[in-house]
Structures are given as structure tokens and as C-alpha cells.
Amino acid sequence: APLDPQEPPSAFSKIPLIGHLIGIISYRTQWPIFTMSVFSWRIYVVTSPELVQAIHRNTKAFSFDPIFINVSQRLFKIDKATLKLMMPHPQGSPNEYEYIHSLESAMSSAMIRGPNLENMKHQALDRFSSLLENISAEEQSVKLFSWIGDHFADATATALWGPDNPISKDHSLIQNLWDFQADISLLSLAIFPSIIARKGHEGQQRLDKAFQNYYLGGHFTKASSFIQNRINSYLAQGISIDRIPNCEGAILGAGTMNSVPALFWLICFILVDERLHVALREELSSITTKIGAQTVCLNTSELGRTCPLFTSTFHEVLRFTNAEVGNRIVMEDTLLEGRWLLKKDAVIQTPSIRRHMSREIWGPDFATFNPRRFMDRKSQPKDVQKKQWQGGFTPFGGGRNFCPGRHFATAEILGVAAILLTGFEFTSKDGGVFKMPGMCKQGMAQQVKQPSKDVEVLIKRRREFEGIKWTFEVGPGTDAEYLAY
Ligand code: HEM
């Protein structure tokens, strides 16, 4: 159908465009929002921070729920009774999408700042540091991305599902997780998954089986509140333990697929910049205390205050490497900000790259990696601060679907990076200076870009940390590290 004059102006394209391509096209227009017609579909691409905020605010008119249902149906084996619960209740009922919204609030309430979050932080850091026990002062070679990823997956599974989680018991499941993630776009087509995405399909099946055994065996008594709340949400809706939908692999995926590359890039951006590396070691030494001969305590409780450069470097890494696309469906014809008509059933995309890499928002050095950028934020004029924080920087999305794991991800990534930078040395395998690995454009299902290939490094424990046990203080965290202004 032709565009209504009130709809956002049209931008080319007859072919399906995904992920980074939409981001790139959005650079070619000065419009705050434009329309792309792809076959008979409409996609509205939003470029302005103000309109992104308006989209996030109006959770009734612009919803992720239909996408959630569609993807879940394709990706997971969900029994008929559960599917019925998941489907929207008749219009006009108090909560059309009760199943989804109950799960969402179960997750986000367990992840707000407080004792539950601190407990998860503790579990993750204790586990990650215990996995480093075999790294001695003798150099050994590792592939950095997969090395970080494997340890991180185990630590994250421990924090979420507790010490009896299936991943810590069987590390071969970690490769299954990576295979599943790599094939997730193909798998969500739901066409002969065992043929078109054999590895991913097998990976998903092994993960499903392992988590099924975990639930049936009742191993969740020491799981986090995040998992306990999810279980309670299922039970409250009449889904018994033996019928919990087989999407736990996807939850572990959500907990690792962005955090692992974010941690990897944080380490890389620090290793390539010797002065930054030295400055951060200095900063981190202020939160590192030796207790007796055998223990080192890392106080990660207020990193935004105690380690502002470290925190700022992490946020700049997110600005630089995050390419979240943000999808919503228009639920009813809606006039956005009294100006733009958005038609029912169209898709809305809010590519973060357009705003994270914007001259108007970040100034002339927008394309330079500046680890101090987020430290200097408060010295910026008020209107610049407003632009940057109100819709200009959205690595964790926003609105109803604002990433529930954002506090945990921040705490876990900063905590693990603090251990690695304080206690270990990383050098290039060939003995030269550490070179920045290439970055992939963007995966469909990921929000943080992956490296184009892994990098081999030599790792060794620093002499003064030989035979040391790490302990952690994990307080509530500060607004500065959690980007809560
Ligand atoms: C650096 C790490 C992470 C980044 C950049 C990230 C980013 C995001 C983004 C952009 C969204 C979509 C928001 C939207 O549509 O508006 C999202 C959703 C989600 N994230 Fe994260 N995330 C990270 C880590 C985590 C962790 C550690 C967990 C869990 C342990 C997690 C669990 C989830 C879940 C369950 C959703 C779906 C929420 C919903 O549909 O309501 N994420 N994340």
C-alpha cells in the first residue's frame, strides 16, 4: 500500500535488510524516522534519540510481545497447553500477554540492585577465580575469546543456576551453547533444523536434555532468585516442573552472548593501549588488598566511585561495540509524538549504532575510542548531557524490555576484568605488541559485535599473585557504573 502522507518518509530498498545494514542506511538520512518497504512489509527505522525514547515509553502501542511469541514458537519445543497460555488473551482482558509479562517481572525483580544481585555477583566471581587456579607464573598460550567465553559461561551458569548447574558438571555443553548461538538465526527459521543447522540443533538438544535433568532432579534449590522466580512464574501459571519450556539454553545464551564479547573487547582495548593499561592497574590497586600471605580481596562494591576510569572505559567499549537493533511491532495505528503515523503490524527498529556513533550526540571525536569520555560527561553542557543520556546511549535497550540482566552483566564483566588485569599478564603470542582483532559487522541475534577471528595470547600469573586465593567484596554498586543517572 502507498505511504500515508503522515507516515515517515520512504527510504529505498526492496530487499530484506537486516542488522547493521539498517544501521548503515540510517546514516544516509537526516530524517528522525523513515520507512523502508520490504516486499509487502513496512519497517520504520528510528534515528533520533527523542523518538527512540517515545517508542520505549509507549509499551502498549509498540510491543516486543508478538516477536517473543513468534520466535519462541519457532525456536523451542513448546507443548500445546503452554502455547495456549503464551498466546494473547482476548482483547480487553486485563493483561493480554500475562504469560510473558509475568516472566519478565519475575526476571527483572530478581536482578534489581540488592542482596539477590550481590549474591549472583559473588557466585560468579568466586567461580571465575577458582577456574583460574591452573594458570601459573609459567606462560601458557590460549585463544583469548574462547578462553574467556568458556570460563565466563561456567561462572554465569553458576551464578544463575547455582553450584549444581549442568554446565559446571559437563564443560562439553559450553561448545554446544556456542554452536546453538551461532546457528540461532537459521534455527529460528524452523525449517529442517537438523539439516540446515545441524551443529546448532544438536547443541540445543544437548542443552535441553541437561537442563531438563537439572529441573527433574530438583537441583535448583541453590539457584539464584532469577531462576527461582522464573520457576515460580511457571508454577503460578499451572506449568509443572516437568513441563518447563526448553528455553534454558537461550537464557544462558542471553547471559553470555553479549557479556562475553563485551568483556573480550574491554580487555583488548586496554591491552592495546599501554598508558591506559598502566593507569587502570594503578586505579585497580586501590581496591586490591592483601590479607595475610595467601588471600587477596578485591573490593568491587562501588566501582563507579573507586575506579571511574575503569568504569568509563567499559561504557566506551559498550558505545563502540554495541549494535543493538531493537525491534518492536506496532499494535495499533498510532500517531508518534503527534507527528508520525505508524501503521498497525509494521516493524519498528531503533538501531543503536546510529546514535552511538553520532557526531551530533558525541561531538567531533565520535569515531575515536576515548576511555575517558564517560568520566568527562558531567563537564559537558547540560543540553549535550541530555542528548547523550536520553536515548543517545542504549546498549541495554529500553522500555518494558530493558535488559533485566544489565546490572548483573556490568558487575560480572567489571569484576572479572578486574581479576584478569590485576592478577595476570597477557602478551601477544608472537612477542610483539598486542594488535586489536577485527570486529564482525553484526550478528542478527546479538547486541555486541563479535571478533572476526580469535586471537592467540600468552597468559601468566603475576609473581606476587602466586598461590593466592581471591575473595571479593560485592556491595550494591553505584549509579555511575550502572548508567543510572
Ligand atoms: C553486556 C551484556 C548485555 C547486553 C549489552 C545486553 C543487551 C540487551 C538488549 C539490548 C536487550 C533487548 C532490550 C530491548 O529490546 O529493548 C536485552 C534483553 C534481555 N537480556 Fe540482556 N544484555 C546483556 C547481558 C544480559 C545478561 C547477563 C542477562 C541475564 C543473565 C540478560 C538477559 C536478558 C533477557 C532475559 C532479555 C529479554 C528481556 C525481555 O524480553 O523483556 N542480558 N539485553
SSE layout:
Layout (H helix, E strand, L loop, with lengths): L18 H9 L5 E6 L2 E6 L2 H9 L4 E2 L1 H11 L4 H7 L11 H14 L3 H16 L9 E4 H18 L4 H4 L2 H11 L1 H4 L5 H4 L1 H19 L8 H12 L11 H9 L2 H13 L2 H12 L2 E4 L3 E5 L3 H4 L1 H14 L5 E4 L3 E3 L3 E3 L4 E3 L2 H5 L2 H4 L19 H11 L13 H18 E5 L27 E6 L7 E5 L5 H4 L3
Parallel strand pairs: 2-10, 6-13
Antiparallel strand pairs: 1-2, 3-7, 4-12, 5-6, 7-10, 8-9, 11-12
Bound molecules: protoporphyrin IX containing FE (HEM).
Write up this protein:
It is a single chain. The chain has helices at 19-27, 49-57, 65-75, 80-86, 98-111, 115-130, 144-161, 166-169, 172-182, 184-187, 193-196, 198-216, 225-236, 248-256, 259-271, 274-285, 303-306, 308-321, 352-356, 359-362, 382-392, 406-423, 479-482, and strands at residues 33-38, 41-46, 62-63, 140-143, 288-291, 295-299, 327-330, 334-336, 340-342, 347-349, 424-428, 456-461, 469-473. It is globular, with a radius of gyration of 23 Å. Strands 1-2-10-7-3 form a five-stranded mixed beta sheet. It has 485 residues and is an alpha+beta fold. The chain contains 23 helices and 13 strands. The chain has a single domain, classed as Cytochrome p450 (Orthogonal Bundle). The model has no long low-confidence stretch (mean pLDDT 91). The structure holds protoporphyrin IX containing FE. Protoporphyrin IX containing FE binds at residues 64, 104, 107, 254-255, 258-259, 262, 322, 324, 326, 395-399, 401-405, 408-409, 447-448. Protoporphyrin IX containing FE binds next to helix 5, helix 14, helix 15 and helix 22.
